[in-house]
Write a structure and sequence with these properties.
The chain has 3 domains: 82 residues, Arc Repressor Mutant, subunit A, CATH 1.10.10.10; 104 residues, Periplasmic binding protein-like II (D-Maltodextrin-Binding Protein, domain 2); 92 residues, D-Maltodextrin-Binding Protein, domain 2. 41% of the residues lie in helices and 23% in strands. It is built from 12 helices and 12 strands. The strands form 3 sheets. The protein has a 5-stranded mixed sheet. Strands 9-8-10-7-11 form a 5-stranded mixed sheet. Strands 1-2 form a two-stranded antiparallel ribbon. A hairpin with a 2-residue loop joins strand 1 and strand 2.
């Protein structure tokens, strides 16, 4: 292949397309327009002589060549980033601490394996985790946080945001709840008691704003900062709990809860790994965020 035909920016577009399997999601992740991503996809299809993504029903699926490239890309992009970025990370000699904001779901369900590996692989690395709150964007700017894994509507211009995925919302209730059979309509949803989660990111505003558009609201009977506590409260009451679907599907069975579709349409949840631009080229930071990003997208609890 003639290397002069290759625009390195196409590789970044390819990475997002293969991870997101969506032109619109890739455009959002890269802060580009959908037409620009569509043009890049056409160039990539010509470059690789393969469709890469094809529509199957209502979803885009990777071709075998697309699956192969998805596995190969990290091994291509990481050396390229290291090539253009000064500084090398030495796991044996590194000594330092990282302050990271995450959700309790990520801490309990996704990070245990990675933390164990890092404690063995980088003996001098210390990790301090905090529960993410939306106001912590300021902590990233001012250096009190090194990175954050969270849900967020929009990434500020001065913050680097690497997409982890997106999700839709669902409603949980105990399996013998009066609303567990039959359709869950708007009247039943708004008449019920609700439990909300106050910590680990804003899991309430999207629901409440969507209801407000209809002149409706929820009756929040209990608010708690931790997802495990919210699930336990839901299992022992007639209250409803509204959560991102992948979280709900992964942990609801542990509490004997069932999932029901919401009676209203909400904007998808967007998940990001965030850091401030001043740390973009720090070798140790780059090492940790690559491993954290990989753990987030590869974990079975992220799907």
């Amino acid at each position: 292949m003639d290397l002069s035909r290759i625009n390195l920016n196409l590789l970044l577009v390819l990475q997002q397309l293969l991870e997101q399997r969506s032109v619109s999601q890739a455009a959002r992740s890269l802060n580009l327009t959908q037409p620009a991503i569509s043009r890049s996809l056409a160039q990539l299809r010509d470059l690789f002589a393969d469709p890469l993504l094809v529509r199957v029903g209502n979803q885009m699926q990777l071709t075998p060549r697309g699956e192969e490239l998805k596995q190969q890309l990290p091994g291509v992009l990481q050396p390229l980033e290291a090539f253009f970025t000064p500084g090398n990370f030495n796991a044996d000699t590194f000594r330092g601490r990282f302050n990271i904001a995450i959700t309790d779901y990520i801490a309990e369900r996704i990070l245990p394996d990675l933390v164990g590996e890092l404690m063995r692989d980088v003996p001098g690395m210390r990790l301090h985790f905090r529960l993410w709150e939306p106001g912590m964007i300021g902590d990233l700017r001012e250096g009190r946080l090194d990175m954050a894994a969270c849900l967020l509507d929009k990434v500020p211009d001065d913050i680097h945001g690497r997409a982890v995925g997106s999700d839709h919302w669902t409603c949980l209730m105990r399996k013998d709840h009066p609303l567990a059979t039959g359709p869950l309509d708007m009247d039943a949803y708004t008449a019920a008691d609700h439990i909300s989660i106050s910590g680990g990111g804003d899991k309430n505003r999207s629901v409440d704003e969507a209801l407000a558009a209809y002149g409706l609201g929820r009756r929040i009977r209990t608010s708690v900062p931790f997802i495990q506590a919210a699930l336990a409260f839901t299992a022992r009451s007639d209250a409803l709990l509204t959560l991102p679907a992948h979280m709900a599907a992964n942990i609801a069975p542990d509490f004997g809860l069932v999932l029901r579709p919401l009676p209203l349409k909400l904007e998808p949840v967007q998940y990001y790994l965030l850091w401030h631009r001043r740390q973009q080229h720090d070798a140790a930071h780059r090492y940790l965020r690559e491993r954290l990003h990989r753990a987030l997208i590869d974990s079975p609890f992220s799907r």
